Amino acid sequence: MSKLTVQGTGLATGKPDLLTVSVGIDVTESTAKAALADDNTTANSVIDTLGLSGSAAKDVQTSDVTINPQYDLKGNITGYEVTNTLTAKLRNFNTAGSIIDGLAAAAGNSIRLDSLGFSVEDTRPLEDQARTDAVRQAVSHAQSMAQAAGERLGPVCSLTDQSQLENLYPFSNDQAAGIPAASSATHVPLAPGSEQETAQVSMVYALLPAPVRK
Q1: Most buried among 63, 65, 87, 104, by the most CB within 10 A?
Q2: What pLDDT, on a 0 to 100 scale, did the predictor assign at position 193?
Q3: Which residues constitute the domain of residue 103?
């Protein structure tokens, strides 16, 4: 029995519902103890600002803390730099811009905005839509190819999900740094755009001879 193998690619588009922001607090002082104390105070102020803005504790995470000596050209230690990086998940896009303004105000010149990225928190519905679209495309290809070959489709012998699902167009900004505190009349403008998921499937059909017309 002859067989026919076809592939199908599906695409699904959804609206982002999550904004992940990575904020760094950089402080340099003459001693490591002073730098750490200053950085701790500023980091706590940033965390408090997130809490007052409605962020749940589970959505705010310390992702990195470093202490590094600073040197002059002769190799002498001139001070110590402490960096505390926080990652926060924001779900209300209407207030996200003002929250970023508030973080800049809380941290002052110590702030560093490392990145922000929009995403879909639960991608499973989009993944299912993309797989469904991929299967429909594969079936359409199989039907047209069998008809062109003068045969008809038999049962499906196998159906394989070959997807490497990923966000194709996440919005991110890795260039932002040192954002000053904005006035109360303006906020950081944010454009969430859209998120896409792709899926790919492979189908194998049995081919049956076309019926003989009498």
Answers
A1: 104
A2: 87
A3: 18-119
- Whether 156 and 205 have beta carbons less than 8 Å apart is answered as yes
Cα gap 135→12, rounded to integer Å:
13
Closest alpha carbon to 72 in 100, 131, 128, 30: 30
pTM listed for this prediction: 0.74
- Taking the CB of residue 174, how many other CB atoms lie within 10 A of it? 11
Total domains in the chain come to 2
Residue 33 lies in a domain: yes
Q: Is 6 helix (H, G, I), strand (E, B) or coil?
A: strand
How large is the average pLDDT for residues 31-37? 96
CATH number at residue 136: 3.30.110.170
Domain co-membership, 113 together with 131:
no
User: Are 88 and 172 found together in one domain?
Assistant: no
Question: Which pair of tokens denotes residue 22?
Answer: 């990575």
Does any domain span residue 189?
no
Position 178 pLDDT exceeds 80: no
Q: What gap in Å lies between CA 26 and CA 113, rounded to an integer?
A: 11
Q: Is the pLDDT of residue 204 over 80?
A: yes
Phi, psi torsion values for 57, nearest 5 degrees:
-60, -35
pLDDT over 50 (residue 177): no
